[in-house]
Amino acid sequence: MNEGNHRTNSKGLLRTIIETADELRVGRSTIYELIRKQQLETVKIGRCTRVPAASIAAFVEKLRSYA
Q1: In contact, 20 and 59? CB cutoff 8 Å
Q2: Whole-model pTM?
Q3: Is residue 46's pLDDT more than 70?
């Protein structure tokens, strides 16, 4: 593991697709499917796609309300 990398598991406002998948414990393709279905919001910074942390939290809350 690359513990010296300060970008790993960042607590910033935006997550990469891979960070989002890791956080939700699902695969990358599942994240892309959730984005396609508009269940997760994304923002673009240049060519980079990021998922706002607030969007992840809202998605989880929506899942909890269905339980």
Answers
A1: no
A2: 0.81
A3: yes
